[in-house]
Design a protein that fits this description.
single chain; about 350 residues; 8-stranded antiparallel beta sheet; globular; binds zinc ion
């Protein structure tokens, strides 16, 4: 906190006073980068007002006041906000080729795009599966905060029309369980495997990156797996919950992480530039947790992720396997009536789908 205040022109003596005052109500070590703050100072480097946003809910305010002993009053105050339920739509097209551009065009922030990508992470690889003409509508909670950017609560319902498929997600709480997302028939959207080991992160794109990024399946005996072209440093995540078997370096595979999962599966992540913190033999890992960063270590001509999947000791085609595995538990029969009522309300808010669903038999 003191280096930040000093860098913004506050005198050394004033900085000490501010940090001391702040300490009474807030641990300055909790200061995080990129959080907004406001600093008003006098021409001689003294403090007039300092406000720092601690998190989405509260902020620290330090003001000059004659009635406090050192002349400063420090308080942690709630950020006034109003909760609203909002429905927004977007489309992937020439003007908005990425999900982020499209969500911005809809007037919303990228946090919302990331949250939506997480809801559909078992069904859509948002790095490679998006197509021109894809569209979505979602209903979500938005917190309007006075004089500050909006933040988001939960997504309550979403529809994503991807490459002719119409996918729905409804947030529902089965009595006695945690809230989860289900499709229109009450089937869980949770999958044993994520669609992709590459995390969906904001990136600048010029036109459709999907073609360039599309995974290449290797079937050569010595090199079985999928290559994902990705920038160096992009986060690589575990496709399922499990336990780290090894995190090693060798001249062929570079930095490689092996993870054992339930049902005889083992996943491999190769050529990493770095391991994530805590990734070592024996460590427990959850689905979607970062294992490392994309790199070009070992035998690699450029930065990419080589991802492999073994079932009972034999390499299999991960892209097929990801789709095959059964989803999580559906809405139980006892809660189906409640689910149906909530779903119908949510569908009315989403409005009709635009694509004609592909007939299934
Ligand atoms: Zn490869």
């Amino acid at each position: 906190m003191d280096s930040m205040l000093r860098a913004h022109g506050l005198g050394a003596a004033a900085v000490d006073e501010v940090v001391t005052a702040a300490r009474a109500v807030f641990d300055p070590r909790r200061l995080r980068s990129l959080q907004p703050f406001l600093l008003e100072r006098t021409v001689d480097g003294a403090l007039r007002l300092f406000e720092y946003e601690i998190d989405a809910d509260s902020f620290l305010r330090i003001t000059k006041t004659p009635d406090a002993s050192n002349g400063l009053r420090a308080e942690v105050l709630p950020i006034p906000k109003t909760l609203e339920s909002v429905t927004a739509s977007g489309e992937i097209g020439e003007a908005t080729p990425s999900l982020f551009q499209s969500i911005e065009a809809a007037g919303e922030g990228i946090d919302l795009a990331i949250a939506m990508a997480e809801v559909f992470a078992g069904e859509i690889d948002f790095n490679t599966d998006l197509q021109p003409g894809d569209r979505y509508t979602l209903t979500f909670e938005r917190f309007r905060r006075e004089g500050r950017p909006n933040t988001y609560g939960v997504i309550t319902a979403a529809r994503f029309e991807n490459d002719g498929r119409v996918l729905h997600a409804f947030r529902f709480t089965t009595p006695g369980s945690k809230p989860d997302y289900y499709d229109e028939n009450g089937r869980s959207l949770r999958r044993f495997f994520l669609r992709s080991p590459l995390k969906f992160v904001p990136q600048v794109t010029s036109g459709f990156s999907a073609r360039r990024m599309h995974p290449v399946l290797h079937t050569a005996r010595a090199h079985r797996g999928v290559d994902y072209a990705a920038p160096s440093g992009a986060p690589v995540v575990s496709i399922a919950a499990g336990r780290v078997v090894s995190a090693t370096f060798d001249n062929a595979n570079g930095r490689m992480v092996r993870i054992r999962h339930a049902s005889g599966y083992e996943s491999y992540y190769l050529h990493l530039s770095a391991f994530a913190r805590g990734i070592k033999a024996g460590a427990a890992i959850s689905q979607g947790e970062t294992v490392g960063r994309v790199g070009a270590t070992g035998l690699a001509t450029g930065p990419h992720l080589h991802y492999g999947l073994k079932k009972n000791g034999v390499f299999v085609n991960p892209l097929r396997e990801h789709r095959n595995l059964p989803p999580g538990d559906p809405v139980p029969a006892s809660a189906m009536a409640a689910f149906t009522a909530e779903r119908d309300g949510a569908l009315a808010a989403l409005g009709p789908a635009q694509s004609t669903p592909v007939a299934t038999r």
